[in-house]
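In response to reviewer comment 3 from the previous cycle, which asked for concrete evidence that the modeling workflow produces usable outputs, we include below a single protein chain processed end to end. The sequence was submitted unchanged, and the resulting structure tokens are shown without manual editing.
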Amino acid sequence: MKRTLFLLLALLGMPSLRGQISGWNVRLEEKTLSAWSGAQSFSAAAWNNQMLVVGGRSAGLHIRHPFAAFLVSEANASLHVIDPANLSHWALPVDSLPIAVQDQFLSTNMQSVQLDSMLYLMGGYGYMNSLAMHSTHGRITAIHVPQMIAAIQQGNGAAARAAIRTWADPRFAWTGGVARELNGQVFLAGGQFFHGSYNPMGPNHGPGFSQNYHDGYVHFSLVDDGDSLAVMNFTSVTDSALMHRRDYNMTHTVDPSTGALRLTAFSGVFQPGANLPWHDIVDLSPAGLSLRIGASQLLNQYHSAHFGLWDSVNSTFSTVFLGGIGEYLVQSDGNLIQDPNVPFTKHISAIVETPNGSSEYYLGDMPDFLGAGAEFFPIHSAMQHGIISTAELPTLPNATVLIGYMVGGIRSTGPNIFFSNGSNLSTSNDKIYEVWLDASGIGVPSEVLVQNWAQFDQAGQLRLGGGDLSASDVCAYDSSGRIVYHGPLWANVEGYTLPESLAWEPGAYILRFDSGESLRAVK
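The workflow returned the following structure tokens.
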């Protein structure tokens, strides 16, 4: 049975967002793919409108019990090829591949980047037979994508093995980060090194584990002659204030002020002082990291399927997020509520940036709790880096354009299943979804109106604003977790401030309110 979902994505024609403007509907149509049982948190590559799926998990959300979390039996034990236009699917078991890569190909949350016909897999978390325990793989593996797709379609294990080359390299012992190419360099950002069995009670319970966030990014170039692989100019940049995050979305975006391509890190988890997502947005370019002042993301904060839309005429860039997990929920009356359990969400949202700043928009709901750990597979010939320009879209009234597919991810039976420990509360999603743009939308999407913010001004004073914070005390923590202030806010004409007598050292600060909401400010 096919289900269709209509959402409004407005192409903003005026920075004030007032009045009626023409727009595009985002339409999702569910499709059934024969013999595809789904996967989530995998790596993917595209070639000739076919999708290669490697790694990840074939089950749903990992449960809380350490002895039953991230089981080998729940790993995605095959490589898959998906032809979404023809609803065709092929698979080849991982045990057909070289022993050196089998454990990595059974891991989850690898980082990957496709450079032309090559897919490079880095790291990943899973069971390692060589250690007889779970850990993060220090390995980079190259896959020749068209050769691998052909091998899988032919069921040819020997050809699949010939399409793979792999090297042990501890520099790539990452999981939960993101790798993207920009200006000929690979940027590998965020993420962590995790060694041992997962345990939500912490590293000192049970057999224990060690966990270290990478707190920054590396950039490098790959020189591949088809035989050997050279990692050149490997440079590490540490910034714990901005990049202490994992399981997030980092996408290509266009700077609306300059038209330059860059990378943008959205939200992710976890704040050092609380088990909550970040709310801030960080842009990354060859010049380094830049906190997007005054911008925040409250919806769709974990890794999810997403795509970009660039309107060069109106200097507007929109990043659309399809479902996932988020700390805030939009109610039927349009109000936001916080759920500190950070539930699965049906929401679809967009971060819209103009030269005047960024805003977050709630576009509507998915039919189910979908999207977490999914990938967007672009199909439109004009899409580059997951972005489509409105100049490439038809101008005819009632035009409709298929731009891609949402593939995989988690399908949850409810918002807060993590604390239930049931075995059938979520699965990997075995449906795929066509993503259409329809030129029939009229109106303005619903802006997330209450977005509290905190930032330092040029004088070094901490300023806060957004909603009504007058009745709330705030607790300010520095990056080490030390409380530097606990008390009321001081109202002024621009919002709120803290006592000017406070001496703020350079660094990142977490502000926790009585409501449980958290903000971050960087000096």
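The radius of gyration is 23 Å. We consider this sufficient to address the reviewer's concern, and the full set will be provided in the supplementary archive.
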